[in-house]
C-alpha cells in the first residue's frame, strides 16, 4: 500500500522496514495504512511469532507525522478541516492502539531520530513491546514546538512516566538520548553502536519465537548506557515541573541559575503558550485514563487544534517559511485562560459517533 513501507516474513518473524529516508521516515497516511494492514494480517498468522520494525537509514527510525502534509491540507479548507486530516489522525491513533495491545512480541529498533509519531509506532505495551535504543537515538515528543501537543498516546506514556519526567519532556519538547530513554521507561534495552550490526545478525538468525529472549540476553551482555542527564538532574526536574501550572513552572525555572533549568526555560519561552497549558492539562487527565481513553481524548484535541490553527502557524514558522517566528494565539502565557484550555477538551462528537469509539 506504500512504497515507503517494506514488509516481509522470514524465519517466523514479520519484518517492517520504514524506507522514506529523505523525510526521516515521516509518516504519511499511506504509510499508516500499510503498517496497519501488515500488523492486522500478522496478528492471527501462526507463521508469524514476532514483529520487528526498523528503518532503512541509521539517521532516523521515524521523525513523526508528515507535518508538511498537515500544513498543506489543513490550509486547503476553512478552519483547518480536511477529510484527509481526519483520516490520518483517526487511523494513526488506531494504529497506536493496535501496537500497544499487540499480542506478539513487537520489537522496535529505535535507532537515530525517534520523535512524535515515531514514538507512537515504537511504544508497544508492557506485555509484548521490546524497545531498543542506541548511541544514535535522539528521542523527543516535540509537539509543543509546532503548536501541537504530545499525541500518539503521549498523554498516556508521558503521564505514566516516573514523577515529573513526562511533564518535563512534554512541556519542553527537548531531545534525550538512550540513557534518558531507559531512565524514563520509554525504552527497554540499549545496544551500543559497535554492537548494532551484531544485533542485526542475531535478529536474522533467531526464529521469531525466540527473539525476545535472545534480545534480552544480547543486550544484557552489550554494556550499560550509563547515567543520563535526566537522572542527574532529577531533583531539579521534580522541584520545578511538579508545580501545578505552566506559569509556576516557568517562574520556578527562572529562579534557578543552573544550566539545565535555563535550557528548559529557554525552550518553553519559544513554545506555544496555549498548547503548553493544554499539554499540562492533558497529562493531568491522561494519568487517570487507559490507553484507549487517552487516544480518544487526543483525537478530540487534534480536531480542536486544527480548528484553532495553532499547529498550522507552528508548522508555517518552523518548516514552511522557516522564519522561526510563530505568531502564537494568544501570544503570551498571561493571556491564556482556563476557558481557552477547557475548550480544547470539549468533544466534537457525541460518544456514539466518536471516530475511535470502537477501541
From TrEMBL:
The keyword Hydrolase applies. Keywords: Hydrolase, Isomerase. One of its GO terms (molecular function) is isomerase activity. CDD domains: crotonase-like (cd06558). SUPFAM superfamilies: ClpP/crotonase. It comes from the Bacteria. Residues 14-345 form the Enoyl-CoA hydratase/isomerase domain. It comes from Pseudoduganella aquatica. GO terms for biological process: L-valine catabolic process. InterPro entries: ClpP/crotonase-like_dom_sf, ECH_dom, HIBYL-CoA-H. This is Enoyl-CoA hydratase/isomerase family protein.
Amino acid at each position: 500500500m506504500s512504497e515507503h513501507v517494506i514488509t516481509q516474513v522470514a524465519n517466523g518473524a514479520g519484518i517492517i522496514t520504514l524506507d522514506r529516508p529523505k523525510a526521516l521516515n515521516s509518516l504519511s497516511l499511506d504509510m499508516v495504512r500499510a503498517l496497519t494492514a501488515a500488523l492486522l494480517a500478522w496478528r492471527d498468522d501462526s507463521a508469524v511469532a514476532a514483529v520487528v520494525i526498523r528503518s532503512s537509514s541509521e539517521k532516523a527510525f521515524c521523525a513523526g507525522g508528515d507535518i508538511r502534509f498537515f500544513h498543506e491540507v489543513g490550509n486547503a479548507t476553512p478552519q483547518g478541516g480536511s477529510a484527509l486530516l481526519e483520516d490520518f489522525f483517526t487511523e494513526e491513533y488506531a494504529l497506536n492502539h493496535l501496537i500497544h495491545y499487540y499480542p506478539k512480541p513487537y520489537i522496535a529498533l529505535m535507532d537515530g531520530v525517534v520523535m512524535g509519531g515515531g514514538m507512537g509506532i515504537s511504544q508497544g505495551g508492557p506485555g509484548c513491546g521490546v524497545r531498543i535504543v542506541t548511541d544514535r537515538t535522539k528521542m523527543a515528543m516535540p509537539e509543543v514546538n509546532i503548536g501541537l501537543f504530545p499525541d500518539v498516546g503521549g498523554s498516556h506514556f508521558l503521564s505514566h512516566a516516573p514523577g515529573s519526567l513526562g511533564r518535563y519532556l512534554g512541556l519542553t519538547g527537548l531531545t534525550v538520548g538512550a540513557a534518558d530513554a531507559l531512565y524514563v521507561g520509554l525504552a527497554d534495552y540499549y545496544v551500543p553502536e559497535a554492537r548494532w550490526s551484531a544485533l542485526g545478525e542475531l535478529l536474522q538468525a533467531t526464529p521469531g519465537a525466540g527473539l525476545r529472549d535472545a534480545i534480552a540476553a544480547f543486550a544484557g551482555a552489550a554494556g550499560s548506557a550509563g547515567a543520563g542527564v535526566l537522572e542527574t538532574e532529577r531533583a531539579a526536574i521534580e522541584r520545578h515541573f511538579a508545580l501545578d501550572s505552566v506559569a509556576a513552572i516557568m517562574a520556578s525555572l527562572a529562579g534557578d541559575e543552573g544550566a539545565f533549568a535555563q535550557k528548559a526555560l529557554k525552550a518553553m519561552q519559544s513554545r506555544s503558550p496555549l498548547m503548553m497549558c493544554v499539554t499540562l492539562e492533558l497529562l493531568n487527565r491522561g494519568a487517570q485514563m487507559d490507553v484507549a481513553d487517552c487516544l480518544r481524548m487526543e483525537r478530540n484535541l487534534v480536531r480542536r487544534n486544527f480548528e484553532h490553527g495553532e499547529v498550522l502557524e507552528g508548522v508555517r514558522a518552523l518548516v514552511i517559511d522557516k522564519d522561526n517566528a510563530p505568531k502564537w494565539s494568544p501570544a503570551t502565557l498571561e493571556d491564556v485562560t482556563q476557558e481557552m484550555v477547557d475548550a480544547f477538551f470539549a468533544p466534537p462528537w457525541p460518544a456514539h459517533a466518536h471516530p475511535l469509539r470502537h477501541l
